[in-house]
């Protein structure tokens, strides 16, 4: 009995000494980038605005079944789409809303580098582009995409806010991912699935909260 007790105590002690005190965030893959230390300041600003915007868009879709258009984003003062001082300071990105199904592009078709404020664009009719292979590839379970290009800050990226969702009676299935491309004028991808995006040079942004990032910098997390 004494030997068995000693073995149990030794095993527990060894486990407590060897196990990591805290489980850190996973190491990003080659096609991913950390939101804190992998993005420059302007990309961090856009990413930080896209995170709550994605949540707002998803909740709106859950409530209404529709998507927040870029015209509606101007009325809601919703960054990073709203054309205010933040928009001007962070490259005056030109945003397009790519809807699922037919994948028509709804955009504010003005010069992305003009100093026009957000309200004057609200009445401009959206532009459209023909159906792409995206809707075919997703077989009706298409993604809604907010696509940002044309940023004027040196070193700025292009952006995708991809909101994947399911139909056929599946509720509360929306989820958003954010992607960046080193070319600020990267063309819209033919297919918005991860495998295709990675092959086209897009990288998924992995968000970490501030506490985790501070711990990682101090050396307590990987």
Structure notes:
The chain has 222 residues and is of the alpha+beta class. The protein has one domain (27-217). Helix content is 32%, strand content 16%. The protein has helices at 2-18, 41-64, 70-76, 85-89, 133-137, 194-199, 210-217, and strands at residues 32-34, 94-98, 105-107, 143-149, 158-164, 175-181, 203-206. Strands 1-7-6-5-4-2-3 form a 7-stranded mixed β-sheet. The longest helix has 24 residues, at 41-64. It is elongated, with a radius of gyration of 22 Å. The model is unreliable at 117-141 (pLDDT under 50).
Q: Tell me the series of helices and strands, N- to C-terminal.
A: HEHHHEEHEEEHEH
Sheet-strand content, in percent, reads 15-25%
| Largest beta-sheet details | 7 strands, mixed
How many structural domains in the coordinates? 1
From the spread of the alpha carbons, the general shape counts as elongated
Count of DSSP strands: 7
**How many helices?**
7
Provide the residue-averaged pLDDT.
76
Given helix and strand content, the structural type is alpha+beta
- Computed Rg: 22 Å
Q: Could you give the order of strands across the largest sheet?
A: 1-7-6-5-4-2-3
């Amino acid at each position: 009995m004494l030997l068995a007790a000693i073995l149990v105590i030794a095993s527990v002690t060894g486990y407590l000494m060897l196990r990591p005190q805290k489980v850190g965030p996973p190491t990003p893959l080659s096609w991913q980038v950390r939101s804190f230390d992998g993005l420059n300041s302007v990309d961090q600003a856009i990413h930080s605005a896209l995170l709550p915007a994605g949540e707002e868009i998803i909740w709106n879709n859950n409530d209404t079944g529709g998507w927040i258009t870029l015209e509606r984003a101007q009325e809601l003062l919703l960054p990073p789409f709203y054309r205010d001082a933040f928009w001007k300071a962070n490259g005056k990105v030109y945003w397009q809303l790519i809807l699922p199904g037919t994948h028509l592009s709804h955009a504010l078709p003005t010069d992305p580098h003009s100093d026009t404020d957000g309200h004057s664009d609200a009445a401009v009719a959206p532009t459209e582009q023909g159906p792409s292979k995206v809707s075919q590839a997703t077989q009706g379970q298409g993604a809604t995409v907010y696509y940002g290009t044309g940023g004027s800050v040196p070193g700025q990226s292009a952006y995708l806010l991809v909101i994947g969702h399911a139909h056929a009676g599946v509720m509360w299935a929306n989820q958003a991912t954010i992607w960046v491309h080193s070319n600020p004028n990267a063309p819209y991808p033919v297919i918005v699935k991860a495998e295709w995006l990675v092959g086209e040079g897009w990288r998924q942004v992995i968000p970490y909260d501030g506490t985790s990032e501070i711990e990682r910098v101090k050396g307590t997390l990987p």
